[in-house]
Amino acid sequence: MTEITFTDQVTPGTVRRMSTGPSGLLLGVGPTGQPMTLSLFRPQPTRIFVALPEFQTWLIAFRAVCLGAHLSVIAADHRRWLTLADAVRAAGGTVDVLHDADALPGRGRPYRPSLIVDEVEAVPATRRLGAWQSVLAVGDPGASAAVAMLRASDGALIAPLESRAAEQLRRAYALTSGQVRTAADIGASEVAMATFRRVATVTVVPSAEEYRLLFGG
């Protein structure tokens, strides 16, 4: 598993980071109002385990497109993703909604990275990915296979964090009981963001413009 580091300084004007490389994506704000970013794209591939409400997965994908990423969605039910695909294209981005991994880009580029949202485990951890390419591997954190999937990922974004999922996260990332209790006590719009021995909570909500573009508000 590739190391992800947090920058914990929360003095005024400081951004708290879950860093995987030079390109940062704003996730939301932390408990004291500090910006929280996730760096998805780097010269080596990145894999993030995701178990989130659909609107938050959409939001992360859309923000990645706004960084210049090409979006590939692998899903059994394409209808659920058509609204997001239309919003991406209307904003000038590119997206493919696929049934399998056959037509995925081989790699990304520094200013044209590749983001894959995989709902059907079409891109297992054993698959070789390219540079500047990231996978959001959608899974069930309470499933028996979740510990292995979490350990094969560079980090995880989970909400809500129920008791079974919290225990799986603790085992996979060597978290303390106190860390897990803090992460589990999250609100409706909050996400537990975790990696090896580190966990933080972040509020992930759309801006007014994102809401208008994605959800028709």
TrEMBL record:
Name of this chain's protein: Uncharacterized protein
Taxonomic source organism: Tessaracoccus lacteus
